[in-house]
Amino acid sequence: MRIGLLTEGGYPYVSGDARLWCDRLVRGLGQHEFDIYALSRSERQEDEGWLELPPHVTRVRTAPLWTAEDDGVSFGRRARRRFDECYEELAAVLCAGDGRTAVDGPLSEAASAGPSEVPAAASAHVADRFANALYGLADLARDEGGLVAALRSERAVRALERACRAPGALRTAREARVPELLTVAGHLERALRPLSLDWYEDDALGSVDLCHATAGGTAALPGLLARHFAGVPLLVTEYGVQLRTHYLASADAPPAVRALLAAFHGRLAAEIYRRATLITPGNTHTRRWQERCGADRAKLRTVYPGMEASRFAEVGEAPEGADRDTLVWVGRIEPAKDLISLLHAFAEIRKEEPGTRLRIVGAPSGAEGDAYLGHCRALAAQLFPDEAEGVHAVGDNPVSFEEIGGPEAPTLAEAYASGTMTVLSSVVEGFPVGLVEAMFCGRATVSTDVGAVVEVIGGTGLVVPPRNPRALAEACVTLLRDPERRERLGAAARARALELFTVEQNIAAFHGIYLEIVSHSPVRHVVLDDAGAPRPFAAPAEAHVPGGWTGPAARVVARGGPRWAAGAPVRATTEAAR
User: Fold this and answer.
1) Which of 230, 212, 229 lies closest to 276 in space, CA to CA?
2) 50, 13 contact by CB (below 8 A)
3) Which of 23, 163, 342, 546 could form a disulfide with 425 if both were Cys (CB 3.0 to 4.6 A apart)?
4) DSSP string covering 484-517, please?
5) For residues 173 and 259, is the Cβ–Cβ distance under 8 A?
């Protein structure tokens, strides 16, 4: 079958989100054809280029989210009226007080509290209003050739202002000032750029057997439109919660901006979940958020991320080579990882076990990560002055900051191999990739109870509350003093990881899901006879089997049909039923 793989800010680019699991998925399903439709997030990402693609990737189409040239489309009177009606309806839904989102209270509290603070799906009436406005704009973009200029226009800002001032609007929306309205309008223009793409014709997404969105939100919007225009089934995979990410990203924005953007992303998520054929969360934590945001439980199938276990095999099969006095932390260095608490916990550990060392292995994430790394280095120097074994020895700090590829940690596996246990101190975490890697290496773990941590370790490690250095220190000391328990937990962790989190189980799960979706989807190819009329039963279910299923002379109209007047009719051959 042909899969339309939809990505945002990741695959096939060499940097970005989800690029590794997408690459493993595509390479593991070589019996299918893949068309890649990618939205890029920055010019730098585009300049870095693509990963090497396997031969069964038959097409790659990209579009930037970080910039958009004016499409030069000038609307006539009728088109302007259509735009005004649809955009005003969209704005009215975002400003409406019914179907409350988490924006009426402190947004950061709602985001950190978890899905219990996020409401279920909005009422069917509000959901239909949002859908009608969204698809109305999509139809207009297809008919007129784009919406970029219209979404950037003063008409859009004025429509948003009228909606905010209308009776019944959210209190926070009514307080929006012109700069805040401009900010919201600019964000909506960026989020709705996929509406203006030429990806939805019969020779593009209209020709695939299913769309697989590798994230929710904007990444899934092209799949939503392919379903609207061509009836293509949509599969949505989320290993993180896009909606929660947007909540956290706007936590410092003015209340009006926060309210309107949260409403938009909440409505979009609900519409994606409502229209998707199946939804595959990467863990129970993500699944709970999806259910609270309107996803039907019957559509949900948990599929854990697949990770490459073979590169950790040597370490996992010989765990006895670790330094019993060394703790290891591996990951991206950023504030969400809460290395400050880890350093304070390590100070408590040193009081109980003076010979213990801590290796922090990872690179900073952007400018914020650089600043945070500097703060952590300064704190480590303050808490742990250089120590020496004697008056003639060179002092050394028990905390080291390293990066993969350096002399002490040439590979990721060797970084985990250097310590007797792995520590995770995050305050925010989705799927804890670093924990799974440590489990592949047969290492016992001590982690904070965030995200999907408890689900992943499943009793094979110790879990403590986040932002609690004393509890983290006590757990680490407990395992440092009990080598037999460390060994048992490490062996159990490796067995669990090999059972649940390998590339092979991930590929097998998606292969089965692809077949299930296609088997329940009607064949939408229309084969015409020599009179130009559709030929019944000319496209059987076997049409989804890889390889040619019609003769070279058959005329096939894809899902946008029937477009019987598009060219002279061609007689279908008997090979069409093969």
Assistant:
1) 212
2) yes
3) 342
4) HHHHHHHHHHHHHHHHHSBHHHHHHHHHHHHHHH
5) yes
